[in-house]
Design the sequence.
């Protein structure tokens, strides 16, 4: 059975109309860092998934406004998640920003339609900037 995505968040940041970001990464410390920063610094609603299968479950349940996606996860890699998303009209238009330490994967991710890339190790200010830029582009 797939792991259920986390829906943690405070009532203060989960306000009506807040944009939602799904963070899919198998590293718990990375997920926590990104979740906390996006809530505190950008005022976003954040959900998380600890792997590819959990990401698909979360995407099917309620598509986010943006997906931050690790490419290298043990249960299902990010490229498989991308293919799943692109095959479904309800998720095909969700912008995806890839989180990766694998330089060779960057060009392939962009060729697959990812909206952006943030290289690991993450610089949280860069993550916040990329998320804000992508969400603004979607709203425009």
Sequence:
């Amino acid at each position: 059975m797939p792991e259920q995505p986390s829906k943690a968040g405070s009532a203060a940041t989960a306000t009506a109309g807040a944009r939602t970001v799904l963070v899919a990464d198998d590293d718990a410390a990375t997920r926590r860092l990104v979740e906390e920063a996006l809530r505190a610094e950008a005022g976003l609603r954040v959900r998380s998934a600890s792997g590819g299968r959990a990401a698909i479950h979360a995407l099917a349940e309620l598509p986010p406004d943006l997906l931050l996606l690790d490419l290298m996860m043990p249960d299902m890699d990010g490229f498989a998640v991308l293919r799943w998303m692109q095959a479904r009209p309800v998720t095909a238009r969700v912008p995806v920003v890839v989180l990766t330490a694998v330089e060779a994967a960057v060009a392939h991710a962009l060729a697959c339609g990812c909206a952006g890339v943030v290289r690991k190790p993450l610089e949280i200010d860069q993550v916040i900037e990329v998320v804000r830029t992508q969400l603004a582009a979607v709203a425009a």
Q: What stands out?
A: Residues 20-139 form a domain with the Rossmann fold fold (CATH 3.40.50.2300).
